[in-house]
Specification:
three-stranded mixed β-sheet, alpha/beta, 33% helix
Length: 125
């Protein structure tokens, strides 16, 4: 196990893996699966690539209600020619069976905070 950035990394070599590199976070550890034939330089490049992907994914999270409001206005302008009326929009933590909800009467939108770390295109839809 090695450590780079702030996340611990575990490299798993596989004789069955032929070309692809895969990574996933398991209990706070980035597990990078690589083919057994890779040399140290290729291993280091694969680990750096996976760390960069994880960093990108965590920096694109939508952390604040203000960012959510800004994104809603951008989408309203782009797709709806500003015809939608948004009362308020914010993250909520009390939605466990829904991704979001809206009130047609007030124009209020509530988005589950479980969606804070998804890519932009998922949140936009």
């Amino acid at each position: 196990m090695s450590s780079s950035s702030e996340m611990p990394v575990k490299v798993i070599r596989s004789a069955r893996r032929k070309r692809t590199v895969a990574g996933r976070i398991n209990s706070g550890v980035l597990e990078v699966r690589i083919p057994g034939w890779m040399n140290q330089r290729e291993e280091a490049e694969a680990v750096a690539d996976m760390l960069a992907r994880v960093a990108k994914r965590t920096t694109t999270q939508h952390a604040s209600d203000e960012q959510l409001v800004q994104r809603a206005h951008e989408l309203n302008a782009k797709y709806l020619d500003n015809r939608a009326t948004v009362g308020s929009i914010r993250w909520v933590s009390n939605q466990n069976t829904r991704w979001g909800s809206t009130s047609l009467a007030t124009g209020d939108i509530r988005i589950s905070d479980r969606l804070q770390k998804v890519p932009d295109y998922v949140l936009d839809s």
